[in-house]
Amino acid sequence: MRRRAILLAIISSAAILCLIIVRAKLLGRQAGREAGLRTAQGESSARRTPTGLGGEDAVGSRDSRFAVVRLPLGVSIEVPKNWWLLDGDINSTIETAGEAVMNLAGIELPATQKVNLFRANSNPPTTYASIAINATDSTISAAELLQASEAEIGELAPLMHQMLSQGFAAQNIQVIRFDGLVRKIVDGHPALVISYVRSGPKGDVVVQMTRLFIGGKEISLNLSYRLSETQVWRPVVDYMRTTFRVTRPESSIRQDN
Fold it and tell me: What is the pLDDT of residue 248?
């Protein structure tokens, strides 16, 4: 019973986090798009499509096209250099912002708060793909998530679907397809992965939220892209997901066993 109560708390907070992220993206996207459009106006029409970022070329040229972004809590991930940062203090691409943005690991986080560690959108601004990484304190241990049975995890999927649908409806957003909730081990940490497709102002959006539990912290990786741009962005998003690392604290599996 305790595990079920804990898991219900997890999906409830996950649904809330999804709504917060979408709201933040809608607000941040406008500022980022406006800045990006100013940059893109002087470029040729060929530059307005993400040439070299989709399909095999995206993976084959990742060394030159991706930058490793290092964040607090030992979090790191590779992100396309030309993606636009959604940060009130920085108005540039990742590459232009330089080392100050790519190495934020030393920044001290506020205590007992939900913090956005990193957020960026695709370039050129006529396209849509996005990344958001958040951290918060957690009362749920990795061991409790690991001890839950597959049946208990499976029971949560329809509840998560219902919570998302109800929450998004208040924002005039629909959950077009719910692809499930599964438990995985991500970089040595137990995680819940939630996948769905929601409506968007310019077409449906594919979303995957990965929530890692590392003892006293929860870290969420949120990746999304416009469904109509799957051929362009799915290889990029899939690659970014494989580079997601949490090296500190030590693996929560080792801590809890």
Answer: 63
